[in-house]
Amino acid sequence: MTPSVPTGRLPDRVDVTVIGAGVVGAAVARELSALDLEVAVVESRHDVGDATSKANTAILHTGFDATPGTLESALVSRGYGLLRAYAQVVGIPVEQTGAVLVAWTPEELAELPALERTAVANGYTESAMVGPDALYRDVPALGPGALGGLTVPGESLICSWTTALAFATEAVERGAHLRLGCRVEGMSRQVEHTVLHTTYGDLASRWVVNVAGLASDLVDGWFGYRRFTVTPRRGELLVYDKQARSLVDRIVLPVPTSRGKGVLVAPTVYGNVMLGPTADDRDDRDDTSTSETGLSFLLEKGATVLPALLDEEVTAAYAGLRAATEHKDYVIDVDASQRYAVVGGIRSTGLTASMAIAGHVTAALLDAGLDAARRRDLPGPPRMPNLGESFPRPYQRADLIATDGSYGRVVCFCERVTAGEIRDAFASTIPPTSLGGLRRRTRALNGRCQGFYCGAEVRRLFAAFQGGAGPSPATTEAR
Amino acid sequence: MSTGTAGPATLVTPEVLIVGGGPAGLTAARVLAGAHRRRVLVVERERQAGGIPRHCDHTGFGLRDLRRVLSGPSYAGRLVAAAEEAGAEIWDGATVTSWSAEHGAEVTTPRGLFTVRAGATVLATGARERSRPARMIPGDRPEGIYTTGLLQNLVHLHHGRVGEQAVILGAELVSWSAALTLRQAGCDVVAMVTAHERPESYSALTALGRRALRFPVISGHRVVRIIGRDRLEAVELENAATGRRRLQGCDTLVVTGDWVPDVELARSGGLDLDRVSRSPVVDSDLRTSVPGGFAAGNLIHPVDTADVAALDGRHVARPVLRWLDDPGAWPSPEGARVVARPPLRWISPGRVAAGAPPRSRHLSWVDRRIGVPVVTVTQDGRVLGRRRLMWPAAPGRVFRIPSDLFAAASPAGGDVVVEVDGRP
Ligand SMILES: Cc1cc2nc3c(=O)[nH]c(=O)nc-3n(C[C@H](O)[C@H](O)[C@H](O)COP(=O)(O)OP(=O)(O)OC[C@H]3O[C@@H](n4cnc5c(N)ncnc54)[C@H](O)[C@@H]3O)c2cc1C
Ligand SMILES: Cc1cc2nc3c(=O)[nH]c(=O)nc-3n(C[C@H](O)[C@H](O)[C@H](O)COP(=O)(O)OP(=O)(O)OC[C@H]3O[C@@H](n4cnc5c(N)ncnc54)[C@H](O)[C@@H]3O)c2cc1C
Q: Are A246 and A366 in the same domain?
């Protein structure tokens, strides 16, 4: 099969349609396209992983703090191992920095033993309690007043952008039909298949998998269900200058509350330091604005946890929306009679669990009667360009530059992105269609100057590589 | 992961390495290579040297150094030509990715990787405007928000288009430069907004804005929110005194001024940095805390005009020569510091040494306007000098203090404290 163009036509009829190309939808599509099936992926945005999957804290969780016995607990801990291994193969940067959970009050300190027991109940046995001396030895810049902590050596940093793109790229290279900028607006049921009404016409599909993130409850409603309601829970984040990176070499977590994991301070794979996220419930499923209260709350937290961070420059601020529901677990279910599966309520761990969720729902679909065998002619996995700081990047590689000088022409100075990498992004299986998409594939424009120096040149290259086709780079949303 | 390891870089050993080919770096190169016949290498990451003036397509450059008034691009062109004629080697499209006095500079170019080890290094990496996220302005993240640097690069170098109705945040000199560029790009300015009680730049410009450019300068207001999902639709303004808020429609916002020095290399090279401005601390010879390391231009005073940056470059040549001829003679960085008291934010040079700095001026920044400033300099409880200056101290532009006020300071003494008072 030849890879389909992400913006190309869809066939009239397919075996399975995945609604939503976030990191979970892309993982599901990748898994399904390993079977002997015609698979379509429809995504209303103009890029893969362009909703919640691009705006998170990008931590590969061990699942130490999950609620034991839940599906989420099982899938996070399985997903952790799967994604780590996959990352090695395709070149998704992962850094196992480890985490330390810090107690700042006697009440929090008293909760640590229970948290350690929870970790064990979740199958995670590497955690250990540590006293303040160890905390300040490991993180000398930690603010005063830390009473004790719990280490979680397995917690790791990952690049969420590359992850979603890698899954989608592999799915497309396996023959899945990816249609971006295509919103499913409704459906009608027929005997043999479901007809999805999309902004690009009707698509008949024998099976449908709903991985629509913040809209997953709405799509579920089309199939007659009222089993959950998504309440977007906004998380705002501040990204600090790379020059702050020496302040903290691991993830510093607070003691979790019923509202969530709380505000953490962590390095990123790109070499920055992140502070966030907040957690407040919203009505608007598209509102990813940042707020005065959110940012000042983060500064207040940051001043306690890592006071020196506040002297550093902020490089970026953004917000993501968690698909929170009234349930304390994922909603994953297959309705055999309607040949329909829902993968919803994937709130704050979906990046980590993505591959395990994909495996889980595929097995459930096969159980429910999806008739397919594993293909023997699968192409090899893709190699993704490295965006991580702890692995060599093109500007550092004499060998690459010797073969092609454009890897020595730095275009985005802050992030050291070369003309060669920008060109490669446009030649990739799923090329960018916006400046935001280019940012997520190369890091161009993501640095401290936010385009002061390179913004015009990057736009010029964007227009040149798009060859005047496609939309102009109107959207430059910060990550 | 990408597996190839970084191959060996080619070693290059000029006598002087200059990082940054803006007015400061190019002028230093011209003097050192020309009159003094030193082997000078200028490394510039942009495809063309010249620095910020390359994209400031209006007049107002060169008065103090070239004794004539030129447009930014022709000024930049002249500096490049003069440095080249003097015999300096200029690499453009070459980015210094790390530097320390000990190990030299690592440089990435399309021709390969280079390590540059030089007898002396002048850092002249300039300054940039704070971006919207760095100012922590909350709200949506639509298209249509620029710094002046991005705006001018788009309009002058790439002939790109911006919107139709712009708000300019800031009323510094650079803000007026942004207003001119917007006009050339066919974009109306609907308001210039500044948090200060009075516009920071000269009142003549404010009057010009009102009459010739026909837009209001709204002082005492902050931009507190950005509105618009895809394209900017409005900004929310807050009156600093009353807290009252209102919306101002616009499809373009230019955040101007609010400078940060580009100190990545200075910092990774371990130079002492000013606590507030974050610029490398230098003495009157523009020597940093690390032997053989010099700094010049807007990197050490974010920001003054281009001719002042260029004159730093001219000034630094003599100390560089002295060091090349007699390595070893470097003052201890422990010497007395110059400390600015509020409303002064920072002052440069920040270390006391014999001799006068460029143009015999200390450069500083104030956070509040003082119409008739009186400057007092003390050390160890002794008043070294006090003078009423004939020019105001105003936020948004460098406040220049005559250096003879510091002449009696002793490098071996305690901190030299600089204060400024006077009527607003
Ligand atoms: C602040 C924050 C921090 C987080 N931190 C972490 C972390 O550190 N580690 C971790 O593992 N997880 C983390 N998460 C969670 C993780 O980001 C999510 O669980 C994951 O991204 C969910 O992926 P998804 O594919 O289900 O949803 P989404 O990424 O939202 O994708 C759903 C897609 O469906 C599309 N869609 C919706 N309706 C339609 C329609 N009708 N037609 C076509 N397409 C449609 C949408 O456009 C969207 O692209 C965090 C989340 C947030 C908000
Ligand atoms: C919009 C605007 C309008 C202005 N208008 C005027 C005016 O009318 N009159 C006036 O006199 N002044 C004006 N100025 C100020 C003037 O441009 C600056 O004072 C002057 O450019 C400072 O010179 P510099 O050499 O210190 O730094 P810059 O001009 O900023 O040059 C620094 C150079 O260093 C390079 N560099 C940085 N890091 C590296 C690295 N790692 N590797 C290689 N190269 C590097 C940069 O690419 C840059 O070219 C204006 C400034 C702006 C932004």
A: no
